[in-house]
Amino acid sequence: MTNVPAELRYAKSHEWVRVEGNIATTGITDHAQHELTDVVFVELPAKGRVVKAGEACAVVESVKTASDVYAPLSGQVVEVNQAVVNDPALVNSEPYGQGWFYKLQLSQLSELDGLLSAADYGKQVNQ
Amino acid sequence: MLKRTPLYENHQKLGARLVEFGGWEMPVQYTGIVDEHQTVRTAAGMFDISHMGEVRVSGPSALAFLNGVLTNDLRKLAVGQGQYTLLCNERGGVIDDLYAYRLADQEFLLIINASRIDSDVGWLQAQFRKFAPSVGSELLDISDQIGAVAVQGPKVAQFIDQCFPASTAGGADAWKPSDLAKNQICAVDWNEHRLWISRTGYTGEDGFEILADAQSIVPVWEQVLKIGQPYGLKPAGLGARDTLRTEACYALYGHELDEDTTPLEAGLGFFVALDKGEFVGRSALVAQKQKGVGKKCVAFKMSEKSAPARPHYPIWSGGTEAQRIGEVVSGTQSPSLGIGIGLGYVPPASAKPGTEIQIEIRGKRFGAAIVPKPIYRKPAISQFMTDPT
């Protein structure tokens, strides 16, 4: 059974979001890492880049395939996780912890309403 | 509707992730591709290869017919021996790459790629009719009746005999499977099952492949799992099969090989016996050998950290005035080496090991170097032994 922490919000495209003030930390979900299989490479957006919700801004590569990762919300990238670039296996072992991707300073807080709750995301991936 | 092998339910029970491969629903992984890859490199892994095709050619015309359609020289095969060989069209393009075994004096078994069964059988049957075989000769597609598993890894020879404790009943002159030399095959009657066991594989490790009637392959799988487990054997999927074969630089049809690529271009000239007499594609291959090939299949290793190279990524020359010189046909992150590796086609002038090239990955170029094949070679035992001299 896939892990869907209750305190996080989710994009349909399998990114999770943890919001503290106007800063959102994001990564890919346990379901996504499981589907991708062994992650061997992560490419993150540059610090300072301004992204729009739904824009492809990171890439995660497993042994088998490359997949785009989308910005769940709009804002500016204020921090990227170098640890996950150095050790992409963190995406598999700790998708919600050490395996986070980057932090966004949000420009449109109202977009949060468009994300899924844990219950709704859980329904999406378990049907 | 995807086809399923007789082991489908076994894969489900083991929690495999099943994907489409060449029209078949096959396990891509059980625990994880990297874990299964390392298991095969260090202990033992078992793959379901029942999707592969089998063609039986027998009778007085079998040898002459096959030697006229396959590139390698079958006359070199003693009973119980097999060889890697290619099936070419008139242009020397590869219809398929395969293994041919001589099971008995006038009986041959071809193991062909799952995705090529229809093309191969259609081509072979047409050639067979043209050849006008003598009475008593036949060519049969028995792909649906045969199941197969590959048991691969350095520990396999320690338990393979224990899996099938019976004396051999045909094929190579061996008392038990572990006596087989590389490329040999023998028959074993195990319980009520007739098995053909060969010392072959597609991983770069020692190992065996076991052929049996479709209904017999389930007990074979279960027996190997049971006996092999204490030696570290795990089931392994197509994901690991692909990373293992890429490290070993074995061709995969549809990647390194297709009908517009010749064995000479693919670096498989060793398996083309141009001197054996006429065979389909020979004159084209002789001409190409004289003229020289226009592209060559090379192995490369990334020189820096990058996303893995993938099929169709452009290959550029190194240096300041880089030019686009070729294309990647296989690529992955090497679990054994921890760096990106791959195979691709480049002009012969750029094919020498040591040549610096660049791989274009999503619009950006990354440094790589042509390396000798295979990319990964298992550590030689002699390295750990005292020199007897």
Q: Would you give an account of this structure?
A:
The complex is a heterodimer of chains A (127) and B (389). Chain A has 127 residues and is of the alpha+beta class. Chain A has one domain: OB fold (Dihydrolipoamide Acetyltransferase, E2P). Chain A is 20% helix and 35% strand. Chain A contains 4 helices and 9 strands, in the order E-E-E-H-E-E-E-E-E-H-H-E-H. In chain A, strands 1-2-3-9-8-5 form a 6-stranded antiparallel sheet. In chain A, strands 4-6-7 form a 3-stranded antiparallel sheet. Chain A is globular. The model of chain A has no long low-confidence stretch (mean pLDDT 95). In chain B, helix 2 (33-42) crosses helix 7. The longest helix of chain B has 15 residues, at 117-131. Chain B contains 8 helices and 20 strands. Chain B is globular and about 65 Å long. Chain B has 389 residues and is an alpha+beta fold. In chain B, the strands form 4 sheets. Chain B has a 7-stranded mixed sheet with strand order 10-11-12-13-9-3-14, sandwiched between helices. Among the domains of chain B are: 8-52 and 145-247, Probable tRNA modification gtpase trme, domain 1 (Gyrase A, domain 2), CATH 3.30.1360; 294-389, Elongation Factor Tu (Ef-tu), domain 3 (Beta Barrel). Chain B has helices spanning 8-13, 33-42, 62-69, 117-131, 156-163, 217-228, 238-248, 282-291, and strands at 17-21, 24-29, 44-48, 53-58, 81-88, 94-104, 107-112, 138-141, 146-152, 168-171, 185-190, 193-198, 207-213, 233-235, 296-302, 314-317, 324-333, 340-346, 356-361, 364-371. The A-B interface holds A 37-38, 40-41, 43, 59, 61-64, 66 and B 17, 28-29, 32-34, 239, 243, 306-308, 310, 332-333, 335, 362.
Question: In brief, what are we looking at here?
Answer:
The complex is a heterodimer of chains A (127) and B (389). Chain A has 4 helices and 9 strands.
